[in-house]
Amino acid sequence: MPADGLTKALSDSIIGWPVPTLRDPTDVIVGINASGICGTNLHTYHLASGSPEAPYLYGHEGLGVVNEVGDAVQFLNVGDYVIVPDNVDDGQWTQEPINFVRNKFFSGAPNEPSLPGLQTAYVRVPFADNSLIPIPANSSTPFEELLDYFFVDDSFATAWSGLSWSGFQPGDSVAVFGAGPVGLLAAYSATLRGASKVYSVDRVQWRLDVAASFGAIPINFANGTGSIADQIRVHEPNGVRLTVECVGYEAEIANGTVDSTIKIRNMVDITVPNGGLGLLGVMATGDAAFNDVAAELANLIESGKAKPSFIVSDIIDIEDAPETYQKFDRREIVKAVIRTKLE
């Protein structure tokens, strides 16, 4: 089956990969209907993360259909529609909260503890009862509706959680740094949860236009109209109550040069004393699980209150993934979803 793998920096390609089979009685095989190209992927895309002999297998966002179940699986059936989370249960009891780092995750080199990426046709999910997230969908659900549920474990859940980590309360003013997929969903989450004002900070104007479409105030720090703080203080003379960072260690200044510290300095500058900061972007290695908010977000989607799929700019075939990574790296798209044709 085809899979997307990074074999050297700035070069992914479609490779052949074995179709997975059940290994343990708690396993499930999921046929992937949709997988995402995430901003986190760009961090590894810029590095020599894989090789032709051991490709770095991409994809940690997935939605699909249960294709086969192990004998010990109790709560899932063939035909169920599920979200495949980034982090999966490792079968070990722990006292730590669910959003602490887990030991098994999708996307990476083809060895444990990482699992093959989700940008492919079929995946094996270990300890599936505790890993997969069922969604209220079936074979007649339009693909466009499936896309809303697609984000409940990764992008939307990350954005929602980051806003919570900042100490958000309804009525707060919020500045979100970054207008990529997670940044847009963080700003969107703030509007859904009753923020008084939401500011979206980026240097790509057409992405800021997307933020403006749901009521956020765009702050473009590269258009010559002043610093981030100066632009926000036109509206908030004392600063904002909260800031949320959705960029990571490859943050850029106005001319596109990377400065990993610039966003934190700006966040501190514009946040009021005793305000809050939420940090979401990748700063080092490691993943967090957000399964604890997935059910809440799925309920918002099912009720019609949330529609996070507005961030999807491109739906592609897996053969188009290498070209799409290049476009994403050039900031020409917001979010690409790979739609898989299952046999």
UniProtKB/TrEMBL annotation:
SUPFAM superfamilies according to UniProt: GroES-like, NAD(P)-binding Rossmann-fold domains
Cofactor(s) the protein requires to work: Zn(2+)
Domain Alcohol dehydrogenase-like C-terminal span(s) in chain numbering: 181-253
Record-annotated membrane-spanning stretches: none
MF term (GO), any: metal ion binding
Alphabetically ordered keywords of this record: Metal-binding, NAD, Zinc
InterPro entries tied to this protein: ADH-like_C, ADH-like_N, GroES-like_sf, NAD(P)-bd_dom_sf
Residue ranges of every copy of the Alcohol dehydrogenase-like N-terminal domain listed in the record: 25-136
Gene3D superfamilies in UniProt: Medium-chain alcohol dehydrogenases, catalytic domain, NAD(P)-binding Rossmann-like Domain
A family per Pfam: ADH_zinc_N
UniProt superkingdom: Eukaryota
Entry's family note: Belongs to the zinc-containing alcohol dehydrogenase family.
Protein name as annotated: GroES-like protein
Native source species: Bimuria novae-zelandiae CBS 107.79
